[in-house]
Amino acid sequence: MPVYEGSTKVWENYKAQLEQEAEMQAAPISVVNPVEQLNEMFPEAEFEFPDGDEKFGGFFRAQFTVGGTTYEGVGLNKRDAKANAAANTVEGLEKNGQLQQRQDELEAKRKERGEKQKQTEKSDTGNEKPTREKSNNAVTSHNPNVKLQEFCPHAVFHILGETHSETLPFGHSLAPL
User: How far is CA 62 from CA 42, 71, 75, 89, in A?
Assistant: First the structure.
């Protein structure tokens, strides 16, 4: 017994729609904090709370200024206001192309540094050391553990010690071993 009976065109359209939805769900999602992203990619960005410690209409306002353009965010507390302002700034920079331009510049600098390092290694040892190639569109992680694993994929980690999670009564401490 067939799974689907009916028009082939209807099935093909439905199948194409399912495949498109699956691709959208599989698309990489940026988990980088927008404040962190701005600080790393646009260190010249200026941040301020225009109203100081005062709330404006029950909300705190925060502003980021990049390249003469000011982006604003609001929140119930200063942290949320800053995060919203950063997210609005990243979104605005994506729309006007500045974010992609900066990413391209940083990638070009990384490649240039990599080529200089290869030349230095060649001249130091007389032959080229094997290196691990990365794809052009790969974004390096901001997590130090992931960075270490990327640069030293064959590294072996050993636990040197553990902390005691026991709670002791007030005034008592663990005796040195």
Answer: 17, 8, 8, 11
